[in-house]
Amino acid sequence: MNPDFPRDLIPRDDALHLIHALHAVQDKLHDAAQQWELLDENGHVPAAPSYTALLQHATDAQDLSRDVLQLAADFARSPHHTTSTGRTVLKHLAEVATLSSHAAPHFTETAETVLALPRTANPTDRHYLTNRMVIDHASARAFLRRASESLSNAATELDQHLGLHRFLASMTSQHPSPGPSPAKSSPRHR
Asked: How far apart are CA 15 and CA 137, in angstroms?
């Protein structure tokens, strides 16, 4: 076994704490992607979408992005980011930070388009703006969904890491450490 192997393990309690934090943010991202809808129950754009509600989506997405960045920064400052598993988790966190940071601008673009709709008299322009609004909102939700999935991947990586902890614990419990070696008899007492 590689002598550096034990140093490459993230302590169990630290891994469990991080898994809990990842799941908490993952749930928030997933819920936002599911709940922040633009289209009505029939799949149509409402006649008068709410600028306020859409701007709130942007504000909340920005808050989620800040939470992800804080989680990534905290983990990057920990000594665990240098382990093999830690590097993989940090890669996922960096991806989540990027994805979540893209959501807020798309929600903001959606809200901005809502303000332009009433001033648009040309049906072709209105159709274009409506489509753009739907695409921006769907893109923002997709960024949140993909960020949630990447956090799930990071948590899975840590779960597997905990499996390694369990495996090593079972190995050491099956092979008790040998007791003191028997005293060698001196050649004079033979």
From this structure: 35
* pLDDT for position 41: 86
What CA–CA distance (Å, rounded) separates 65 from 60? 9
**40: enclosing H helix or E strand:** none
Within 13 Å of residue 173, how many CA atoms lie on the same side as its CB?
Answer: 6
Phi, psi of 176 (to 5 degrees): -60, 150
What is the distance between the alpha carbons of residues 69 and 62, in angstroms, rounded to a whole number? 10
pLDDT digits (tens, 9 = 90+) for 100-113: 999 999 999 999 99
User: How far is 9 from 16, CA to CA, in rounded Å?
Assistant: 13
Residues 151-171: tens digit of each pLDDT = 999 999 888 877 765 655 555
Dist CA 89 CA 158 (whole Å):
8
Is 61's pLDDT higher than 90? yes
Of 126, 84, 96, the closest CA to residue 28 belongs to 96
Q: Write phi, then psi, for 94 (nearest 5 degrees).
A: -65, -40
Contact indicator for 76, 155 with CB cutoff of 8 Å? no
